[in-house]
Design brief:
This protein is an alpha/beta fold. It contains seven helices and 16 strands. The strands form five sheets. Strands 5-10-2-1-13-15-16-14 form an eight-stranded mixed beta sheet, sandwiched between helices. The protein binds adenosine-5'-triphosphate (ATP) and magnesium ion.
């Protein structure tokens, strides 16, 4: 599809704006506006963990954790929980990103996975949970993995200069909303769209060798999977997503701070954050 004078062409930059507490939208949205003024194609993904937790607790919906028979701790997502999380991710955070982009002259279109079926997912099998010495099967858990992306819709938006802002949940083939990890969404989009870079902005400076010590930033790595030994909690999901993006052919993945000045350019220019490259690929060759 050819780009019009207002269209954005070329391999996109995928920018994932984390939803953890302390993430700031302004710097990221300034940089996204600058990239689009330069005619670059940008696809934005937003997370929403902090807004989701705040809404759940204000509704008195505590999110239960459970342990699977294989020993993994999972946060259960039943239908009322997913309904509230969707309100926060889509109604609050996604619209805040759209408004922040509109205010900077970017024509942004907010989409959750169901809108235009931009993200199709497989629903995960029922969970086998270990509870008080017994195994319980949980069939209520609404979680999945992205299996398909509506590339034609995203190409059509790019051709008329519209910047998509995409967030979970995704939708199954039989029209059920399911929770998907926003980092995995960003990685899947970067792979399917042949992105030139994936930038994941969060509330930390990047991958830290010691999570309690901001100065222990890992500046670069050509082994995203190997770096997982340094990560705890949700940073592990982020590194898994980074590894999948690299394995899918994305040349470079940046994990860096949303609060930095010019956070997207800072990451793309290698001035901040952690830069993950293809195994054995010199950082200088990564083509950011
Ligand atoms: N080694 C590490 N280096 C950096 N952060 C780490 C590390 N290990 C664990 N973390 C945690 O990972 C968190 C970042 O992941 P988190 O999922 O909370 O943010 P996000 O992906 O930006 O938000 P969202 O999931 O809402 O989009 C940090 O706030 C930190 O607490
Ligand atoms: Mg996260």
């Amino acid at each position: 599809m050819s780009a019009t004078s207002v269209g954005h062409a070329g391999p996109p930059v995928v920018v994932k704006i984390g939803g953890a507490a302390g993430v700031d939208l302004d710097g990221a949205c300034e940089d996204i506006a600058e990239l689009t003024r330069r005619g670059e194609r940008v696809v934005v993904v937003n997370g929403g963990s902090d807004a989701g937790e705040r809404l759940l607790s204000s509704l008195g919906l505590a999110r239960r954790e459970a342990t699977t028979v294989s020993g993994n701790v999972v946060r259960l997502t039943d239908a009322p929980t997913l309904r509230a999380l969707t309100m926060a991710w889509v109604g609050e955070v996604n619209k805040a990103v759209v408004l922040a982009l509109l205010a900077r002259g970017v024509s942004a279109v907010g989409l959750c996975g169901a809108d235009g079926r931009v993200l199709t997912a497989n629903r995960r099998a029922p969970l086998k949970l270990q509870e008080e010495g017994r195994v319980r099967i949980d069939r209520e858990h609404l979680a999945g993995e992205v299996t398909d992306i509506n590339v034609a819709l995203l190409d059509a938006l790019a051709s008329v200069g519209q910047v998509p802002v995409i967030c979970p949940p995704a939708v199954t083939a039989d029209h059920v909303l399911v929770n998907v990890d926003a980092d995995q969404v960003a990685a899947a989009l970067a792979v399917r769209l042949g992105a030139r870079a994936l930038v994941m902005l969060s509330n930390v400076p990047g991958l830290l060798a010691d999570p309690a010590e901001p100065s222990s930033l890992v500046r670069e790595s050509d082994d995203a999977r190997g770096s997982m030994r340094l990560a705890r909690g949700r940073m592990r999901y982020k590194l898994e997503a980074a590894a999948r993006a690299l394995e899918g052919g994305v040349p470079v993945v940046h994990v860096s701070a949303a609060r930095a000045a010019r956070p997207v350019f800072c990451a793309l220019e290698g001035l901040g954050g952690t830069r993950f490259t293809q195994p054995g690929r010199a950082v200088a060759d990564a083509g950011a």
